Structure formats: structure tokens, C-alpha cells
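Issue: ligand-bound run for fe (ii) ion - logging full I/O for the record.

Environment: standard queue, default settings, no custom constraints.

Inputs:
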Amino acid sequence: MISPKVKSNPHSSALDPSKSGSALPPSSVAKADSSTNLGTNLDHQFIDPWYAPQTAWPKIRPAFLKLPATYSFDLDRAREEFRRVSESFPLKPFEVLSAEGRRRPRRSYRGLGLTARAEATDPLYDALDLYGPGGQPLSIYHTFAGYSEKRPGAEREIATLDESGFAHETSASTPFFHELLSRFKSPLTKVRFLELLPRGIIPPHVDFPYYQGIRVHAALESNPDVYWEVDGEQFQIPCDGNFYWFDTGRYHAVKNAGTSTRVVLSVNLSVYFNRDGSVRHTPAEPLEDLIARGEL
Ligand SMILES: [Fe+2]
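Outputs:
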């Protein structure tokens, strides 16, 4: 497994979706358009306590890795299945929960859950909300939302997201997707279809360190102007029937500057701990190795 070599902003290289071999070649054309800079080069002092030497867990060096063929799938079939599922169960806009408890829809970002909590009143859309320990609803402002820095008096805390209850597949998970998800050995947490509409942006934020949970994306629909960015490194996830991991424990963001909707199957996994908190892997087992060995 080779980490793609991508340059840091403001002259980031994008990976060419048409060159999707076993390793990810860097594009020879540097993208100098500063409009693609998503601004994830933010102060890390707030998330440093998650990692060594403060904890046993080292930071991960690569920002972005392709998963091995263990997790490859038939892209045309997946697109057809998604089309059928989304006709029956339309994706809904995410909502921002204000500190006062008011909800505001995000018009360009929609989702549908393939997993939900047992207590969910609306399982298909349970995975669109954020929850803390004990299941209390969390505002995005409780997490490391980069733009919360700009709010006067806003103080960021260590995110306390708890997704361990997302253990139940919903009716959006067809036998095809169930089989695909069953290849992961780790407990599944939030699994969702996520649509980012044209002109949509997911601003810089941090979710959780890799040892609490990781995220892998399989792109079902995309366009040449969709960019993911982790800590100043930009890349593109090709629609090639593979999953890609990226580090959501550092500042990350996504932008769809194209004219068509981006659709991903987004899978969150608890690689290092079981749902009951017991250990699956130790800090001595780097995530890069587990990915390379198909041990997710
Ligand atoms: Fe995120």
C-alpha cells in the first residue's frame, strides 16, 4: 500500500480519477487555483492531546489510502442499487442544530442511513445527527468545527461523538450492500449514502481520532471538480469500485465545485475497540498495516 504523494496547499496536486491503479499516482499537473483551497491547515493544538506522547496512540502519517481488493465491488451494480434505494427512501438534508436547539437544514448536503441505533424513531435518517455519550444530541458546534473559531467566545472541546449504538442495518441496506458491509471485520457504526450537491461545501472540521473510529468512502457518483482535503493535502476519490480511507481525525473538508451531485457510500468503523469497549487492536498495530492486510 502506497500513500499518494500530494502537495500541501496552496499548490495542491489533485489525483487523476482516470488513473486508478493499485497505487494512487499523483497528478503531474499542480492545481494552483486557490479557489480549491479548503483551508484545513488549522491550528492543531486542540487535537494534539489525542495522540502520542499524551496518549499511547501515534498520529497517522498518510492522509488518504486506498483499501485493498478485499473491499472492491461492482460499481455499476452499486449505482443501480443506490438508484433503486433512493427512489424508495429519498435522501434528506442534514440539519445544523444550534446551541439553542433550533434546527437549520443544510441544502447542499443530504444523507440516508444504512445503520441506525436501536432506539431510533426514524432509523433511515438517524445517522444524519450527532450524538454524545448516553445518546444526547450534539450540535456541530460541540465538535471541532473550524468555523466555530470565528464565533465570538466559542471554545472548542475534545469531540465526544459516540456512534457505538449504530449497530442495526436499516431497510436502505439491500442484500447487495449488506454483503459488501459484511466484508468489514470491525464493528460498523454510521453507514450512510451522502450526497453533496453542486456548489456544496463541507467546511473544515475534525470528527474523532482513528482509534475511536475511522471513515472510508466509496464514490458512486462524482465529477472532476470534487475535492477532499485533509490537513492541507488535496485529493480526489475516483469512482472505481473501491473504498478509500481518509483521516477524519485531522481537519478535513470536501468541496463540490462541479455541476453534478457527488454520491458516496460512507462507512464508519470501530477498528480498535469493540462496541463494549474491549480491545480489538492495540496501538502497536498501525492503521496503515491493518488497511494493507484487509483487516478493517
Ligand atoms: Fe467529517
